[in-house]
Amino acid sequence: MPYVGLECVEPRSGSLRNHDLPRHESQHALLAPSGSVIFGKLRPYLGKSLRVARPLAVSPEFLVLIPAQAMDARFLAYLARSYDFMSAAVESVEGVKMPRTSWSLLRDFAAWSPERSAQEAIGEILDRECEKVAQLTGRLETLASCAEEPLLAELHRSVAGGRKVESGTASKCSSERCSTRSV
User: What is the SS3 assignment for 36-60?
Assistant: First the structure.
């Protein structure tokens, strides 16, 4: 069964860092069934949560949230990344050396939840909008990388003592990758 540890989940995104998950056979792993949501207990302000699409073995550093019949899993996943839920998770932290979210305190968290059909519609809208944000973020990262390359080349020339920088030492940004057309 694939294994998900805290290091596998991107903060606040609801996505995996790497989709090539290791197989793990640990007696300490928790089972997260398909349709559940996992939420990181350690450093809850990072908002490491994930909607589970297939059964997974997960680190005991996750809470496994199984939605009630009236709750849509996608809606629950967005709720777990909401400011209110993450604030409640941070407020429920117990421990000194390695503080963790306490389920006994967090389980009383109350949130507005409309009828299931409205939850599904909200989830679809949020999926579309999050995809747009991800595309724009990727574009901005590409543009930032392109803007950085000439600065790195100049820095390299300075460090090289004014000597000519060999071709290929500082990569050139392709015009296709760094065009300024809108996304």
Answer: CEEEECECHHHCCEEECCCCEEECC
Reference 28, options 71, 63, 67, 60; nearest CA is: 60
- Each residue's pLDDT tens digit, 63-116: 999 999 899 999 999 999 999 999 999 999 998 888 899 998 999 999 888 999
Parallel, antiparallel, or unpaired for β 30-32 and 56-58? antiparallel
Element (H, E) at 63: strand 62-65
Nearest to 12 by CA among 122, 124, 119, 134: 134
pTM of the predicted model as reported, rounded to 2 decimal places:
0.74
pLDDT per residue as tens digits for the range 114-155: 999 999 999 999 999 989 998 998 888 888 888 787 777 777
CATH assignment at residue 35: 3.90.220.20
Q: Characterize the bridge pairing of strands 3-4 and 56-58.
A: parallel
Asked if 75 and 21 touch (Cβ cutoff 8 Å), the reply is no
| Position 179 in a domain | no
| Pair of tokens at residue 127 | 């999926």
* Number of structural domains in the chain: 2
* Residue 50 CA: distances (Å) to CA of 124, 150, 161: 16, 38, 50
The whole domain housing 79 covers 1-113
Nearest partner of 8 among 67, 48, 65, 68, judged by Cα: 48
